[in-house]
From TrEMBL:
It comes from the Bacteria. SUPFAM superfamilies: vWA-like. Residues 71-127 are annotated as: Disordered. This is VWA domain-containing protein. It comes from Streptomyces luteolifulvus.
Amino acid sequence: MPDLPELAASFTAALHDAGIAVGPDRTRSFARALTLLEPSTTRDLRHCALATLVSDPEQIERFDAVFGEVFGGPADPGAQRGQPGDPARSLPRTLPGRVPGAHRATADGRSREAGAEQREAPLPLAASPLDRLATRDFADLSADELARLSDVMRTLVLRTPTRPSRRRRTAHHGTRVDVRRTLAISRRTGGYPLRLGRFVPRTRPRDLIVLCDISGSMEPYARAMLQLLYCATRAAHAEVFTFATRLTRLTPALRRARPEDALARAGRAAPDWSGGTRIADCLAEFNERFGRRGMAHGAVVAIISDGWDTGTPADLATHMARLSRVAHRIVWVNPRTASPRYRPLVAGMAAALPYCDAVVSAHSFAALDEFTTALSAPRRRR
């Protein structure tokens, strides 16, 4: 795949010279589509370009002519419509130096038509800045780099499995008879229930509860995790807590905060930031104050911690067992598990492991896919 900025600039310049109005806004949309979709064939690239650069069907003929000139000949129209034809070609690893109507500066400063000479201009295979940041460990990112990821991180959707609701909806092939609706329908037929009204239960997403460790051992990941917690508060039926030496409910503070103020509000609300770790005591407080009141019943619980605990492992196992009896699913997020040398030898992690449905790392933006998948997966039998 060529360098995306060079690809977007060269191709849109060629379209502009061919008489297709392509402004900076369309060029920016095209570059963003390339970053998000990462097309690997000419067919995929053509679809990206058509969706972002062409606004009139009459421009398609000129568009295809320029596209074929830039990328080595027109793609087969049958293949573009999903019909049998020649397979779509892979994207060239270099862009042709000859672009219709494009002026390139020579070494002596004079401008000439690019069509006067055909040459191959090798371009570096450069990843976008977002791609480079996505695979780096959160602990290695600076505050500015985390801020660059925040906009993309807020597009994450934290989905949980659905559960039956007390509400219901009408369905022609429902499994249960709706007596009230059946009687209402029978009025049209003289009181005879010739047609049965049926319904099925509605479903709703399960509640999401996130408990995040903000102790000293988790401090390198705390900033990124708080950005993730800000995303969680945007999900329906989500509750966010932090813990170190005490449990703090952050949901009201994060929901009222702007993205840039979320970290500051969280720091003011949690006085035990970068302190010691008492996972067992904080879990006991959560079970006593919130779990027994029904918050954790049937919910998906995500615990973000490296497992370092100053308490007794037996106490942690007791409170984890209590939580597992009411929660639908427990997902433990431990950034340390990203290392291939990691072993669950920490006493706290070893005590909690039998009660976890999934253990993921979420140590980078790319690894968050594994976390979101674990949240939405069905419950496994422990």
